[in-house]
Amino acid sequence: MEERNRDELICMVGTDHSLAPAEVRSAFSLPADVREDVTALARAKLGATGVVLLATCNRTELWASFDGVPAPPDDPLFTVMCEMHMVDPEQNARYFATRSGEFAVGYLFQVACGLRSAIVAEDQIVSQVKQAIAYSREIGVADSVLEVLFRQAVTAAKQVKSGVRFTRAYATAVDQAVALLGERGVNLQDATCMVIGNGEYGRLAASTLVEQGAEVLVTVRQYTHGAVTVPRGCESVPYVDRYKYIDRCTVVMSATTSPHYTIRRDRLEGESGPLEGLTLIDLAIPHDIDPDIAEVPGCTLHDIDSFTTDIGAENAQAIEAAQRLLAQGEKEFWDWIGRRETMAHTKPPMGALFPLFVDLSEKRAVFVGGGTIALRRVRTLLPFAGEIVVYAPEFTPELERFADDGAIKLVYREYDPSVLDGADIAFICTNSNEINDEAWAECKRRDIFVNVCSDRFKCDFYFPGVVQSEGMVVGVSAGGKDHRRVRQVSARVRRLLEEEDL
């Protein structure tokens, strides 16, 4: 593939801890209740085939792929990013960087393994990269290029984590916060600490403080649905009463995704007792703790930018080893792009798809992979297929419940060609490109009708949006491209069937 084409395929724009201070990064965070609509709108405005928003406390990045469609210049990408967050492009341009093609791919691989993190080689970023693509997949704005790119980056990052040893003082910002407290003479042994936020980072903070011998209070919101898990050794307190407990505390850490302050200066001074010696640590973007609290007598405030580390000369060999692993992962991604392009040139142009309705009541449907994509497709296929068998080393809890009810059969094993024995139709749904390609090739060799979730060019058919109502079945497909539109049209058809007396 020519260099120019690579630059046009993948683009990104973003800011991070090295480009912008925390208060600027706070302006580029999206509340959870608007993230889906805003991300989908960004995709539409760019004309992209896929988008991913990678947003953490240290970075906000918009990734876009243009698979078979013209890519816009860098400026519209940045303009859309600013429109998403309702900020002025001219005032914020200096805080952003744009990347495309090989530069963008190499950058993502470095991000995923922590080489671009504020705390070098930290442990949290790889799961955040994985969650970013999972969210785009869930809301229907990911495409196969971004699916494979992010999955390859996560795989390479895990190889670096397991195969390269970095000399580092801290694995996370929480570890560095604990070290900073020690440097400031704060003894956590038997100290009372409060943690606001019961997400992944909040639980990490609470567990780390417990390990240091602290008595830890974890706030819990009363309107939270379902069971709330509080880390072992912690005491839960109502979030609404948090100010009443602060005068007992030596340290308050906050790590939420709230768009509002969890600790405000006026309420802290008005509702809490003596504040002398109180240290507050804000691990969130946007800020959880009112920055004006730094001016309150007796209080010390640190935000996420207080916690950074340099790579250090002692890690030169580790960096070289990591770069070799990342380079191999990047090569595998571009090799996949090349193979796909070759297939696209040799395959007849895809026209309109004919909606063929098939009786599967006496057919054996085989799934390779037991994750969320397999779950969604199994759930849809259940009323139609005579036999559903799912092969994977592990399964989602809901798939296990289907098996307990006798609706499907689960086989705990890694993929090998024999799992396709007797299959009439196959769904390949693993998170491994290599396994997906191998299973697809075996299906083609055996003339098994196959759908590969990660590559629309390797699908004999596309899994449609299915709507059922009183004996009527409607299938909706966009040729494996626009999953969000399929969901919207399916919902409209469902409402029509429910409302109309047909």
What would a concise description of this structure say?
41% of the residues lie in helices and 17% in strands.
What is the number of independent domains? 3
Count of separate DSSP helical elements: 17
CATH architecture of the largest domain: 2-Layer Sandwich
Report the biggest beta sheet as strand number plus sense, adding barrel if it closes. 6 strands, parallel
Strand content: 15-25%
Structural class: alpha/beta
Instruction: Specify the CATH homologous superfamily of the largest domain.
Output: Glutamyl-tRNA reductase, N-terminal domain
Radius of gyration: 25 Å
What's the CATH C level of the largest domain?
A: Alpha Beta
Q: How far do the termini sit from each other?
A: 52 Å
List keywords for this structure.
single chain, 502 residues, Beta Polymerase, domain 2, Rossmann fold, five-stranded parallel β-sheet
What does this structure look like?
- The chain is α/β, with parallel strands linked by helices and 502 residues long.
- It has three domains: 3-168 and 315-342, Glutamyl-tRNA reductase, N-terminal domain (Beta Polymerase, domain 2), CATH 3.30.460; 173-304, NAD(P)-binding Rossmann-like Domain (Rossmann fold); 364-463, Rossmann fold.
- Helix content is 41%, strand content 17%.
- The chain contains 17 helices and 17 strands.
- The strands form four sheets. The protein has a six-stranded parallel sheet.
- Helix 3 (32-46) runs antiparallel to helix 4, helix 6 (101-112) packs across helix 8 and helix 7 (125-138) runs antiparallel to helix 8 (144-163).
- It is globular.
- It starts with a helix and ends with a helix.
- The model has no long low-confidence stretch (mean pLDDT 85).
